[in-house]
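Take a careful look at the protein record below. Let me know whether the structure tokens fit the sequence:
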Amino acid sequence: MTRIIDPEFHRLAMLIDPYLVYDEEKGTFVIPEDAPKEIHEAYKRKKEIWEKYQEY
């Protein structure tokens, strides 16, 4: 398990968390399509940071 100590990652997580919805079909959390554009961009950036830390 990777523990990420990155202030930007945690800031984005706090911004995104209220919008996350569990999709039972996919088995993952997703952002609804009607969420603000900033939330979608923040979710994309959070995933980029997550992938960066998975390389270590």
The mean pLDDT is 90. Residues 4 and 53 are 7 Å apart (CA to CA). The helical segments are 7-16, 37-54.
